[in-house]
Amino acid sequence: MSRPIIAILRGLAPSDATDVGRALIDAGIDKIEVPLNSPDPLASIAVLANEFSDRALIGAGTVLTSQQVDMVSEVGGRLIVSPNCDPEVISHTHRLGLESWPGIFTPTEAFAALQAGASGLKLFPGALAGPTGLAALRAVLPTGTQVYAVGGAGPENFDLWIKASADGFGIGSALFKPGMTASEVAERATQIATAYDKAAG
């Protein structure tokens, strides 16, 4: 079962990529980003893409330039997540046929992202907007717009975010921190997947 959860593997080392990726996918979390400010992120993305591209959507986070989009694409990444709304990066990602999930916080950014071809929107930082902020934003967004809450959204409040119309979530340190074993990641991923299933009904 696929869930609308993006695992954010900040700090992942290439040597751990296969075991951590398998732990996540086996637990039912099959969207994975490796932020580009991780150690040797393109190598980790290449490992994950080579191993799991038939079972999971693999890509990069903290993508800030079109050149970085190209680099991620060249190693097999298909998911481009950014902390900001840069129409040039979004449109370039769209032209390459990759998924584009830019960070937005305001209606202006949301509409600029959609106009540039975003696949969905990453409400970031979610903790600042809160579920009430998302509910207010949702009132003006085009029907069908996918919005994932990132930062301040997790198993303790999935239900509140879902009630406020969140379509999904990006989960970082609650799922993975550098130095964790694959079994620890598997345990956390299972707990988060279970919590999401319960909140989503």
CATH C-level class? Alpha Beta
- Widest sheet: strand ordering: 5-4-3-2-1-9-8-7-6
- Tell me how many strands there are: 9
Helical stretch tally? 8
Shape: globular
Class by SSE composition: alpha/beta
Q: Please describe the biggest sheet, giving its number of strands, its sense, and whether it closes into a barrel.
A: 9 strands, parallel
CATH architecture: Alpha-Beta Barrel
Under CATH, the topology can be stated as TIM Barrel
State the order of secondary-structure elements, H for helix, E for strand. EHEHEHEHEEHEHEHEH
CATH superfamily: Aldolase class I
Distance between the termini: 14 Å
Beta-strand residue percentage: 15-25%
Radius of gyration: 16 Å
Mean pLDDT: 97
Percentage of helical residues? 40-55%
Task: List descriptors.
8 helices; 9-stranded parallel sheet; alpha/beta; 201 residues; single chain
Question: Mind explaining what this structure looks like?
Answer:
- This protein has 201 residues and is of the alpha/beta class.
- It has a single domain (5-200), classed as Aldolase class I (TIM Barrel, Alpha-Beta Barrel), CATH 3.20.20.
- It contains eight helices and nine strands.
- The chain has helices at 14-26, 41-52, 66-74, 87-95, 107-116, 126-138, 158-163, 182-200, and strands at 5-8, 31-35, 57-61, 79-81, 99-101, 103-104, 121-123, 147-150, 168-171.
- It has a nine-stranded parallel sheet with strand order 5-4-3-2-1-9-8-7-6.
- Helix 1 crosses helix 2 (41-52), helix 1 (14-26) runs parallel beside helix 8 and helix 4 (87-95) packs parallel to helix 5.
- The radius of gyration is 16 Å and the shape is globular.
